[in-house]
Write a structure and sequence with these properties.
With 451 residues, the chain is an alpha/beta fold. It has helices at residues 2-25, 92-100, 105-115, 122-127, 265-274, 340-370, 372-376, 383-386, 391-397, 404-409, 411-415, 421-424, 426-431, 435-450, and strands at residues 34-39, 72-74, 81-83, 130-134, 138-146, 149-157, 162-165, 171-174, 179-180, 182-183, 191-194, 211-214, 222-227, 233-238, 247-250, 254-256, 278-280, 293-297, 303-305, 309-314.
Length: 451
Amino acid sequence: MTFRAFMQRLAAKVACLLVLVLAVSGCDRGTPSLVVKAVAAGVPSLAPFFDERSGLGEDAPDVKAQPVRGSLQQGDTPGLYGGSKQPTVCDVKKLKAFLTDPGNDQKAQAWARALGITTGEIPEYLDRLTPVLLRHDTLVKNHDYKKGKAVPYDSLLQAGIAILVDHRGQPAVKCSCGNPLRPFTGDTNRISVKFEDGNKEWKGYDRSSVVAVRPAARPLEKIALVDVDDPDRGINRPVGTGGAKDAAFDTRKTEAVPGLAGKTFGEARQALADKGLAAGYDTGSVPADSARVTATDPPAGTELRFGQYVMLSVAEGSSPGDGDTTSPPPSEPSLSGPSTPGTSAPESSGSTSKSPSTSPSTSPSTSTPSGPSTSTSTSTPPSTPTSPSTSPSTVTSAPPPSPPPPETTSAPPVTTSAPPVTTAAPPPVTTVVPPPSTESAPEEPTASVAT
């Protein structure tokens, strides 16, 4: 009885100890959450590249973050960005003047270095950027300017913030302060957002509406925006323009969901984008571009308006895709910093595609002497493969006489040469190799005696 009571007390202590351990360590043993600094619309940066009051850009604080179906979206996703009838959401000319001013040379060097370009490329780079307004709370790699250097940090930009995007729809510059932006590389599902330094948690903030943007699969000619003041109005804005060449369209016009079953995720996403529809997914991470689509929700034939999501289901076992970075192969390497890292990929892939074409041509030539030549040399004596470059010339001088003697002497093997082809091949290689140098001369007299 005493022993039973002792065991019960021991079990209770062990249980308490296990609970304590779980409470301290936590049940989730994954990687720790990445700290991300919140950046609210209209709130000045503490260490900007340029004064927030210099008129470089103006945010739209009243924009409410839109729901999203998948936290990682491509830069050409229809409706990902917003626009406005106000043409001065970003003053690119003024930013260019600041960065090319000799008095701001140190800032220009730090700015260009953060984007992976040179100071001489700044004007052309800016000319290819397009001003937009965020419609989602968006994760980026932001940069402060401290002690003459660009200091990177992960941040969450509130919907309504004005930014410049590159020719693949990737955030590149925060308009109001000129801070350079790069892609967010962390796990979008494991972040800890810090609201501090005047950036209070904004109304309507929803963790499920946070997105990160990866470059579009191909360079864009125009970006399809939604007017943040009138969602029924769409804006087709040519890349590299600030609003003067905008063309309006009706976002209420519907498109039928195409049949996508059997296509790859990458193909399905592009087919939807071409119709003005967005690709969604409900898995923890974005499916691989090569993953096969098994079904869509809503199904094919359903009419949807511009920017609405079509949920794609993919075959189980597909590996998660991003990473970029299976980055799509940029075709314009020098246009933007974010695309520069990707340019090495297509070049290397191109070189590898060429190298196989040369290696097969060499490999048959090396393999033919060892294997095929022995099988074909049954009709012509093994002297052809075994003798080096000097032997063929002597053999060709008397080809008809020399074959008969070996075949006559080895007449029995000739008739049975079909079965022993494999057994007869090794002896010529090993036994005939030594003779060519010493007994090649005696073979010729034997041939003449035979005649």
